Amino acid sequence: MGSTLISNGTVVNADSAIRADVLVRDGRIVALGIGSDWTADHVIDATGKLVIPGGIDAHTHLEYPIDGFTTRTADDFHTGTVAAAHGGTTTILDFVKKEPGRSLYDTYLRRRDAAARRSVVDFGLHAIVPPRDQQPDVLDDLRRLADEGAASWKFFMAYPGTQMVDDGELLAGFELARELGVLPMVHAENGHMVARETQRLIDSGRTAEHFHATAHGHDAEAEAVHRAIVLAESVGAPLYVVHVSSAAAAEEISRARADGRRVWAETCPQYLQVAYEDYAGLGERAAAYLCSPPIRERSNQEGLWKALVTGALATVATDHAGFCMHQPDDLPPQKLRSPGYFPKVPNGVPGIEDRLMVLWEGGVASGRIDPCRFVDLVSTRPAKLFGLFPRKGIVAVGADADLVVWDPRADHVITTAGTHMRTDYNLYDGMRVTGKPVHVLSRGDHLVDASGSFDGAAGRGAFAERGTPHLF
Ligand code: URP
Ligand code: ZN
Ligand code: ZN
Ligand code: ZN
Q1: What ligand has the least distance to the C-alpha of 59?
Q2: Binning pLDDT at 50, 70 and 90, where does residue 438 land?
Q3: Is residue 430 within 8 Å of residue 414, measured between CB atoms?
Q4: From the CB of 187, is ligand 1 less than 6 Å away?
Q5: Is the distance from the beta carbon of residue 442 to the nearest atom of ligand 1 less than 6 Å?
């Protein structure tokens, strides 16, 4: 592994930006200094570049089973983490969905093994809490899971009949999370409202792909966010809301935080940078854009940016759940399997590789946020919330050498062919960006070089130990 010196860059953390050299040895940062005369086995000249902590994507779905485990997302832990690394992400937090006929606990152990065999960057796993009728003793498993490093659990308020839990289950789960120091997370959409609206659309023949967004209204999201906050507060639990898409929902979070509630929330690049207007006229090709909650009207975007600036939205993750438009060899038909009928389109969009470039462009290059805030959103805050800090999420002596040398003046065009995700389309295809990663190190290993060459074996990624969340 040896040593690496990253010289002459500007080290950007969430709270500072300073000119400094970074010395890496045996996977950790061992020194930071100005004008050093250090030598190392490998030197990266970062003149004119930023040195930032590796991205942490707190929301990915690699080889994620859907439709009763009959198919899965296109990227597995190998292809997905190779793509992540190319985009400057060195840690992912993925999800465990209970397999039929297997307990959540056993599923978790199997999935952790699978991720350890295939990942090229470090990973952690959030447990998805199944409805009680799928596993009556699930609370016992959750206790054991907390001991096994699953320091965050997600509850679905959407998808009735398969994944949705009721308010009683939310309360019991939140209460146990508080007791064990686990951070509960919610997919906040009112599943009954969405199901009812979906049925109304089907009954009136409005099943074209873009009606998905009509079915998943702003109200359904804002209602669920509000309810989750109230329920968490009633049992003294903190709360993390995943993939906030509606400015109305972000408003709920903003109000709650102003009232002192311990709630944090995430949004995703697709909600900031892509709009309903981009796909409403595409016919069946709109399937490429379908995810839940949906990509909303362009007029909604400014409210999300405002919430990112004020802190009501604390993190930017991808919710990477990529499906191909055309059938990949090893999987059943995906996005186009039921043209003209949105209820059967698999939900989810790719983006694990694009996240940092897209947020830099819309956020930093456009003057909405500064590079420190950028680092906080993509790395430091997720590290803190999910118990990875200060081992990850910061460029500091003693931290893992998960580092990105970032060119803030790149002139790069994102293309489907130029990215490494397995999906056969990219929502940002053709987008010109002015910031991009040029070197990516994971625990000191130089995975991605300026030439774009990649050096990292499947299985080198490690399960990331997680401590107590920093909830402040
Ligand atoms: O549509 C989405 N977001 N699919 C992935 C699963 C989820 O709900 O996050
Ligand atoms: Zn979700
Ligand atoms: Zn998701
Ligand atoms: Zn190099």
Answers
A1: 3
A2: very high
A3: yes
A4: yes
A5: no
* Omega within 30 of 0 (cis) for the link into 390: yes
For residue 272, which amino acid is it?
L
Q: Compute the distance between CA of residue 289 and CA of residue 342 in angstroms, rounded to an integer.
A: 11
CA dihedral 311, 312, 315, 320 (to 10 degrees): -150
CA of 50 relative to ligand 1 center, distance in Å: 33
Here the contacts of 326-334 (C-beta below 8 Å, separation 24 or greater) are 326/424, 328/74, 328/422, 328/424, 331/71, 331/72, 331/74, 332/70, 332/71, 334/71, 334/74
379 lines ligand 1 (CB under 6 A): no
Q: Complex ipTM above 0.90?
A: yes
- Residue 311 Ramachandran class (φ > 0 left, ψ -120 to 50 alpha, else beta): left
pLDDT band at residue 450 under the 50/70/90 scheme: confident
Q: Structurally, what CATH architecture does the domain formed by 55-364 represent?
A: Alpha-Beta Barrel (3.20)
Closest CA relative to residue 53, chosen from 343, 380, 359, 316: 380
The 10 Å Cβ neighbour count of residue 206 is: 13
Token output for 89: 């992400």
Q: What is the pLDDT of residues 27-64, one digit of tens each?
A: 999 999 987 899 999 999 999 999 999 999 999 999 99
Q: Collect all residues with Cβ–Cβ distance below 8 Å to 286 and sequence separation of at least 6.
A: 208, 209, 210, 279, 280
